[in-house]
Amino acid sequence: MQTFLIFALGGFIAQLVDGSLGMAYGVTSTTILLTAGLTPAVASASVHLAEIGTSAASGISHWKFGNVDWRVVLILGVPGAVGAFLGATALSNLSTEAAEPWMSAILLTLGLYVLLRFALRPLRRRQLTGVSSKLLAPLGLVAGFVDATGGGGWGPVATPTLLSTGKVEPRKVVGSVDTSEFLIAVAASLGFIISLADEPLSWATVAALLIGGVIAAPLAAYLVRIVPMRLIGVGAGGLIVLTNTRTLIKAFDLPAPGVFYAVIVLAWVAALAYTVRQIVRDRREELPEDASEPVRS
């Protein structure tokens, strides 16, 4: 029961992050499952099965809040489903010894990317003309493949790319990427079920992730409207980097692990402090010039 509650809490946190950023459900929850001792293929399969429910709940929540562009959902999601099925098949055919460092390296890279992306590169909005299908379709294919093989990656690949164009409203990027993830979760799950037919899945783990994620989905869809995305991104990215560094240190038996942890924690705290300062500065610059002046009688 304790393990079930821990995985449910992990699913809650993962969906809270994902629903607010449009990324990192798979990265966060797969990191938790790998730390608990599941094999990479089973961890990714469990996450994607749970994502069928969490992404549906998240999509409905974002739709109700007006955060979804259905054109983006379809043009991005259908090629993404193809990539996810291929990625699930590829990961299932790797040995556990080869797959665990591979997946942790992908997760660490994605976590580092999320951290740096939100700490150092503020979003620039341009004319909201929409994104071309010439970008959406190949982006979906690549993001879907990375998502299935790395246990996460749909959001970290798709969301920053679409945000960087500045052509879609940020909240609709987050909502559309989250909603299209339903297609990726279904395709990846089919790939894993077919390829892992002889390997039992832990349905209790899937249920725990699903319950935690479904509870968090409406709250996350609301938070995306009020909480600075940069702050959530830096917080989640640092946690993912720290956890997967631990896995790689154990896999390669690296010396002086404490030094690695200390450097990462210090850099993470510095990034959080820098991000908070930037958010405060940006908000001050957005105030009208006379907003800070006292009212005169």
Automatic annotation (TrEMBL):
Compartment list: Cell membrane; Membrane
Keywords attached to this entry: Cell membrane, Membrane, Transmembrane, Transmembrane helix
One CC-aspect GO term: plasma membrane
InterPro entries, A to Z: TM_pro_TauE-like, TSUP/Inactive_protease-like
Residue ranges crossing the lipid bilayer per the database entry: 29-50, 70-90, 102-120, 180-197, 203-224, 231-252, 258-276
Topology class, membrane: Multi-pass membrane protein
Family the UniProt entry places it in: Belongs to the 4-toluene sulfonate uptake permease (TSUP) (TC 2.A.102) family.
PANTHER family, sorted: MEMBRANE TRANSPORTER PROTEIN MJ0441-RELATED, MEMBRANE TRANSPORTER PROTEIN YTNM-RELATED
Protein name: Probable membrane transporter protein
Organism: Saccharopolyspora gloriosae
